[in-house]
Amino acid sequence: MIYLDNSATTKPYKEVLDSFLKVSSEYFGNPSSLHSLGGEAEMLLNRSRETIASLLQVHHKEVIFTSGGTESNNLAIKGCALSKRNIGKHIVTTAIEHPSVTNAMKDLEKEGFEVTILPVDKEGRITVKQVEDALRKETVLVSIIHVNNETGVIQPIEEIGEVLINYPNVSFHVDHIQGIGKVPLRMDVIDLCSLSAHKFHGLKGNGVLIAKNGVKLHPLFSGGDQEWTLRSGTENVAGIVAMTKALRMTLENSENCLSDLTAMKDYLLDELVQIHGVYIHTPNIQSAPHIVNFSVPGIKSEVLVHALGNKNIYVSTTSACSSKRKAPSKTLMAMGVTRQQAESAIRISMTYSTTKEELRLLIKELIQAINTIKEVTR
């Protein structure tokens, strides 16, 4: 099996699964309980929070555990906007955000908020000037994805953050879900940052929202006031411990193997550009080392996905959250890509265990599949 859909989800590390099983079986107490078993669970929870804070270079009280990226994005966007509605009701975002951001914005528009959506250039990028020009006195939030989940394009987050420091009423949220462990990011220029465990070899159902000291959030859940009163509900201690281990291991791999991953992306781009009829949408520069997006116009993306799947090679079309809707990628359409190209888009997403031999086999089977499909449909 050749798995190249790591932007949809990653395979959990064995050590992560071992941690989850051990905590689930031996430290299963509720961390809010007063007895010793609850105390042990609470200790693991606190230790995980401190470790994640250290890994991300933030304060442990700025770490909020969630159920994943979607909840982290919703808590950041809705929680921040609702807490500031007496200050202003204007939000700035981009045309290429993940659905969990886009739909959260739509919900806020129903509550009377106004959302400015910044267009992107042909490479899918915005500029610092666009953000600054969009700001108003009633702007309370800017939310921008760091690494686009479909094309891998990187936004100038740190430069935008430096500008927004001069606007004290504006909170800056960054969806860092695809970037963590692949594209470094300074946390000191960000107010809110979303992460999802299953994107870095943790388990589904766990995430993190970093909310910097002083940022106020309106809770989305009412209940027992866990997570600094911002996210009620009994914490998934086993999943959190496993997520902590996954984050540590992924960041270690980043230190040791990032250049190898970048070299494999360069190899993949070099091979794809030689295939007749292939259009590459991922820019060569300022893009993540693990994502490559391309089209084969005339061949529907799902047909190519199934053809490769028959060879046990697993790739994807658009975002996993949108791939079953049959609609063309809104990210590619925002970049000015033709509808035909957008409807034939394929995403390859690698991780640190991906090998060059796997990519060679991908290219071989891709060429064969393209030729076979074109022959059949001729």
Account of the 3D structure:
The structure is a single chain. This protein is α/β, with parallel strands linked by helices and 378 residues long. It folds into 2 domains: 127 residues, Alpha-Beta Complex (Aspartate Aminotransferase, domain 1); 235 residues, Type I PLP-dependent aspartate aminotransferase-like (Major domain) (Aspartate Aminotransferase, domain 2), CATH 3.40.640. 40% of the residues lie in helices and 14% in strands. It has 11 helices and 12 strands. The chain has a 7-stranded mixed sheet with strand order 2-8-7-6-5-3-4, with helices on both faces. A 3-stranded antiparallel sheet has the order 9-10-12. Strands 1-11 form a two-stranded parallel ribbon. Strand 5, helix 6 and strand 6 form a beta-alpha-beta unit. Helix 1 packs antiparallel against helix 7. The protein starts with a strand and ends with a helix.
Give a nutshell description of this structure.
The chain is α/β, with parallel strands linked by helices and about 375 residues long. The protein contains eleven helices and twelve strands.
Which key terms come to mind for this protein?
PyrdxlP-dep_Trfase; about 40% helix; 7-stranded mixed β-sheet; alpha/beta; Cysteine_dSase; Aspartate Aminotransferase, domain 2; globular; about 375 residues; Cysteine desulfurase; pyridoxal phosphate; catalytic activity; about 15% strand; single chain; 2 domains; Aspartate Aminotransferase, domain 1; 3-stranded antiparallel β-sheet
